[in-house]
Amino acid sequence: MNADPHEIQKFSELAHRWWDPTSEFRPLHEINPLRLEWINARVALAGKRVIDIGCGGGILSESMAKKGADVTGIDLSEKALKVADLHSLDSGVTVRYELIAAEAMAEREAGRYDVVTCMEMLEHVPDPASIVKAAAGLVKPGGHVFFSTLNRNPKAYLYAVVGAEYLLRMLPKGTHDYDKFITPAELSQFVRNAGLQVDGLKGLGYNPLTQIYALNQDTSVNYMVACSRPL
């Protein structure tokens, strides 16, 4: 299985705090509106069949469902999925959640989705190219795939590891393994090898003075990639 048991355990232990906007998951709550609107601007989510790979507690999954999408969320953390299910019941927002690997889902439901999202996950798995290939297998011809991850360079290490985990303490220490960060060139190659095409990149920046996140053209730390499967 393309998963690191230590990574699954790490996020499972924090699962009960997933929907607390003041918890370790505060950055996810704050960037979610930005990534949601970026995705929705590129492909109107209303009426689309969407799968969210590595959905965790369901922050993005629920927000896409609120836009009118028919959403399935998959993850390998049973505790996170239980939290996602409970929150869906509380919020009244319908999302189907399933404990299954992306590769297994791609075999079972090949080409069934209009949109595939995989956000903040690739840097946590042993073989990110396999996840990209699975995402390509899940999306329909003409459909869209969105990834987000962390670049690998000294600036990314300074900002995402030293700054976010040790200085600003925005994230628990050990959240990220710098060696697993992925450059845009590497991710673009994974995308092309999987039969997708890259349609656009967008950076996500954080201002420690204003404590505000914003989309920009700087992909040197956090970045998102929009892809599509040719007809």
UniProtKB/TrEMBL annotation:
Keyword tags: Methyltransferase, S-adenosyl-L-methionine, Transferase, Ubiquinone biosynthesis
Record-listed S-adenosyl-L-methionine binding positions: R35, G54, D75, M119
Gene3D superfamilies, sorted: Vaccinia Virus protein VP39
EC number: 2.1.1.222, 2.1.1.64
One Gene Ontology biological process: methylation
Key word Magnesium present: no
Keyword Acetylation: no
InterPro entries tied to this protein: SAM-dependent_MTases_sf, UbiG_MeTrfase
UniProt enzyme class: transferase
Entry superkingdom: Bacteria
GO molecular-function terms, A-Z: 2-polyprenyl-6-hydroxyphenol methylase activity; 3-demethylubiquinol 3-O-methyltransferase activity; polyprenyldihydroxybenzoate methyltransferase activity
Pathway: Cofactor biosynthesis; ubiquinone biosynthesis
Catalytic activity of the protein: a 3-(all-trans-polyprenyl)benzene-1,2-diol + S-adenosyl-L-methionine = a 2-methoxy-6-(all-trans-polyprenyl)phenol + S-adenosyl-L-homocysteine + H(+); a 3-demethylubiquinol + S-adenosyl-L-methionine = a ubiquinol + S-adenosyl-L-homocysteine + H(+)
UniProt xrefs under HAMAP family: UbiG (MF_00472)
Function: O-methyltransferase that catalyzes the 2 O-methylation steps in the ubiquinone biosynthetic pathway.
Family: Belongs to the methyltransferase superfamily. UbiG/COQ3 family.
Protein name listed in UniProt: Ubiquinone biosynthesis O-methyltransferase
Species name: Massilia glaciei
Lineage of origin: Bacteria, Pseudomonadati, Pseudomonadota, Betaproteobacteria, Burkholderiales
Gene this chain is encoded by: ubiG
